Amino acid sequence: MKKVLVVDQERCNGCQLCMMGCSMKKQDWVDFASARIRVAQLDNDLSLVTTCNQCEEPLCLTACLMEVIQRNTKGYVVREESACIACEACAAMCSFGAIHMDRHHEVAVSCDLCSGNPVCVGFCPTGALQFKESMDESYDRRENAAKRMALAVRISGHLGP
Questions:
Q1: Furthest-apart CA pair in the chain: how many Å?
Q2: Is residue 161 part of a domain?
Q3: pLDDT at 129
Q4: Strand partners, 100
Q5: How many Å apart are CA 12 and CA 159, to the nearest integer?
Q6: Averaged in consecutive runs of 10 residues, what is the pLDDT profile of the chain (161 residues)?
Q7: Nearest alpha-carbon partner for 156 in 38, 39, 42, 9
Q8: Does residue 92 fall inside a structural domain?
Q9: How far apart, in whole angstroms, are the C-alpha atoms of residue 126 and residue 45?
Q10: Is the distance from CB of 65 to CB of 58 less than 8 angstroms?
């Protein structure tokens, strides 16, 4: 059974330790711009965690001009960053805002679940991040997206612009 990264937005305290752990794993130093997971402070006591949803049919994969985004043998969406030309087509196609530019290396980056052992989970002091087996991966992804959207709507106080 495949594992998925589950985010409990309500439990996130905004500490950004997940970003620190991720950047250390990917770059060997703390550099939030290189982290593949993002934590945005929406107001004093609410934070929004954004990470790759590992979509069943990822639009980023089909949008990539250099075909550097693929599924690995474990089924996770990954990218060969050294071949990225930083065109940002993948980022434009991601409905969840999970792909961003690493301006230090001029490549598009997103969470690859650390090849099946996401470091961010171990750094999260509140348990807001969990990597667990899923009976229905599609449901888990939709639920994560819905919770993220509900939190954003609650902060903004409305559905429109």
A1: 42
A2: no
A3: 96
A4: 109
A5: 23
A6: 86 95 93 91 82 91 95 92 94 92 90 94 96 73 68 55 40
A7: 42
A8: yes
A9: 14
A10: no
CATH number of domain containing 50: 3.30.70.20
Beta bridge partners of 69: 79
Coil vs helix vs strand at 41: strand
**Which range marks the domain in which residue 128 is found?**
3-156
Q: Is residue 152 part of a domain?
A: yes
| Counted domains in the chain | 1
Rounded to a whole number of angstroms, the distance between the first and last alpha carbons of the chain is: 40
DSSP labels for 62-102? HH-TT--EEE-TTS-EEE-GGG-----HHHHH-TT---EEE
Q: Does some domain include residue 95?
A: yes
Two tokens at 101?
């530019």
C-alpha dist (Å) from residue 113 to 45, 103, 110? 27, 21, 9
Q: What is the pTM of this model?
A: 0.81
